[in-house]
Amino acid sequence: MSLFHLPFRKESGSRNMATDWWLLQQVNFWEGPIFRRYGWDSPHISFGYGQSADWVISHSGKDYPTMVRRPTGGGIVRHGTDLTYCIILPRASKGGQMTPRSLYGIIHEGLGQALRILGIETSLKPCSNPKSGIPGDCFREPVGLDLMDESGLNKIAGAAMKLTRHGVLVQGALELKDWPEADHEKIENAFTPILAQELGESICPTDWSENFETECSENVRIFSSTAWNFDRKWG
Question: What is the rounded distance in angstroms from the CA atom of residue 56 to the CA atom of residue 233?
Fold first, then answer.
């Protein structure tokens, strides 16, 4: 099968989430996993499905228009200078049959290899007893198999997942504030062949479908709504 590599898009928080969700909805129509890197049209905060929006506002100091609830779990992630990406895995694929922990580790090991190619050394946080409860602030609360800097003290990459009967959605972020010279496109181009090899796929550059904007419009409405962002109400 193929790892379908979609072109970069830079959009609002709600559109970014809507696009990721649309890809998950379309997973049965693709003959393999999907990868995309995307940007943000303004600084945003995304927060996990299980988090309280009121807590996120009080903790981050951000207001509603600059925050969006993800369909995946995890904690607060600050966007604007990070490399944000999405991976969609059909359940029948090699990656879709991995345990979440194995998949998480493979992704971060691959990112570490890609950064090493570009001269940036990293480390993986060792696994320990899992923390109970809903995570708070993603990059300030590292967990096992997160990607850390060379010292092992600072988290530079994390991800969250959503598992459904048909597929797996991975939403991840890599933050390299200490390396402003790091080019996101170069990291993407170094990472995708490593990811493809680990997933047993071959890379297939793919354009967005002509009907994408129309088909995704309802998702945009939902991810923009106060019902979703404050109450997790879908529809």
Answer: 17
